[in-house]
Amino acid sequence: xxxxxxxxxxxxxxxxxxxxxxxxxxxxxxxxxxxxxxxxxxxxxxxxxxxxxxxxxxxxxxxxxxxxxxxxxxxxxxxxxxxxxxxxxxxxxxxxxxxxxxxxxxxxxxxxxxxxxxxxxxxxxxxxxxxxxxxxxxxxxxxxxxxxxxxxxxxxxxxxxxxxxxxxxxxxxxxxxxxxxxxxxxxxxxxxxxxxxxxxx
Length: 201
Ligand code: AP5
Ligand code: ZN
Prior knowledge:
Elements: E1 2-6, H1 13-24, E2 27-30, H2 31-37, H3 48-52, H4 60-73, E3 77-80, H5 86-95, E4 100-105, H6 108-117, E5 118-120, E6 127-129, H7 138-143, H8 152-175, E7 179-183, H9 188-200
Parallel strand pairs: 1-3, 1-4, 2-3, 4-7
Antiparallel strand pairs: 5-6
Helix pairs in contact: 1-9, 4-5
The structure holds BIS(adenosine)-5'-pentaphosphate and zinc ion.
Residues 13-14, 32 line the site of zinc ion.
GO molecular function, one term: ATP binding
Binding site for ATP: 10-15, 118, 127-128, 186
Family: Belongs to the adenylate kinase family.
């Protein structure tokens, strides 16, 4: 499978990609996680951190290279967090074909609540939520942190950047007739069933 999962910040791309990667034995290719793991890497544009903590996009050449290398190494993938603008979409079409392009549709009100309550385990990278998905293990609870870009002002900027740069990508795939839209406003297990139905449909 070569699956592209599109959606706004907080739509559940990371949560669902992980489930899909496990279910199908494919790679979870995520530019967000890759950049967070290399946030202090020096590039000719500065560090990824400087863009990410402001809620802005990291420059295309940096991100395109990450995706190119990851897709070359992958035997099947679910791609999460890329492409985020039309120029990245063009680049992606040059390096791979896709079997499924899925848009996880979630209302803005729900997105804001999910991002505000998200917590991350710095040791495992596991994602939780203060209301919807809280770990039972107290040692885990105590070490959870908030993602640096989940602070309120940064969330607002990420949603603005999404509307300006990434919504045109969604429209591009929709206009080509390639887009399958899935309602992402349901419990994670239910959304996962919907995604599997599309992929195996
Ligand atoms: P990235 O890491 O990709 O962030 P994002 O797109 O803003 O998406 P998120 O990770 O915030 O949300 P998600 O959809 O994965 O939701 P999640 O599953 O975690 O990018 C971060 C930054 O990196 C960018 O701002 C940019 O600077 C840079 N970057 C990355 N890619 C780039 C690119 N291609 N070009 C340029 N720059 C790039 O879920 C969210 C929360 O909701 C969690 O707490 C979860 O537990 C909960 N949740 C999930 N599903 C449900 C559900 N069904 N019901 C209730 N709660 C749920
Ligand atoms: Zn994510």
